[in-house]
Amino acid sequence: MTTILGIAGSLRKGSYNAALVRAASEVAPAGTGFEIGSIASIPVYDGDLEQEHGVPEAVTALKERIVAANGLLLATPEYNGSLPGAFKNAVDWLSRPPKDIARVFGNKPVAIIGATPGVGGTRLAQAAWLPVLRGLGTRPWFGKQLYVAGAGQAFDEDGRLVDEKVRRSLSEFMAAFVEFVAAP
User: Whose CB has fewer CB within 10 Å in the chain, the N or C terminal residue?
Assistant: First the structure.
C-alpha cells in the first residue's frame, strides 16, 4: 500500500490548507494510506535550544512519520508572495541534525498544493519551495498543478471542500501523484 503524509503549512484553526489536506485524504485513490501530520507543536528554531536539549519530540515524531510515508504532500499558504515562515521553520527543524536529511527527505516523492483566499492561488509560494526541496534532496513531482484561489468559496464554514471543480482537480492530482510515488 502506498502511504502519503499530508502536512498543512498553516497554524490557523480554520486553515484552508488544512482543509485541503483533509479533502486530499478523502479523494486519494482507493488502497492509498493517507495520514495527516501537523506542524502546530514545533517551536521556533533556535540553535541554542537544539544544542541544550536536542531536537524536540514533536519534530522527531514528525520526522519518523515522514520516513515511514512513501510520499509527502505539502499544502502551502502564500504569505507576501512566498512560503510561510511557520512552515519553513518546521522544515528547518525537520532537517536537524544535518546527518538526518538524507534519511528523512532523500529521494522522497513530494508534491505541493495550496489554497488562498486571494485570486492568484499559491503559485509563488509553491515556486519558492522548489529550492528548499532541492536542498533537501527530495524528488519533487512536477505533474499536475493545484492552486486553489478564492478558497473562501471553495470550502464551507466547516472546512469541507464544496467546489466540485476543485474536488475533481484534486482527485486527478492525487491519482497522478500516488501513481508517481508508487512507480519504481
Answer: C
What's the rounded Cα separation, in Å, for the pair 113 and 96? Answer: 25
Q: How far apart are the first and last CA of the chain?
A: 13
DSSP, collapsed to helix, strand or coil, labels residue 33 as strand
Domains of the chain: 3-182 (3.40.50.360)
pLDDT in tens, 127-182: 999 999 999 999 999 999 999 999 999 999 999 999 999 999 999 999 999 999 99
Residues 6+ apart with CB under 8 A from 155: 16, 19, 115, 161, 162, 163
Which pLDDT band holds residue 184 (cuts at 50, 70, 90)? confident
Residues whose CB is less than 8 angstroms from the CB of residue 148 and which lie 6 or more positions away in sequence, other chains included: 16, 20, 113, 114, 115, 116, 121, 122, 154, 166
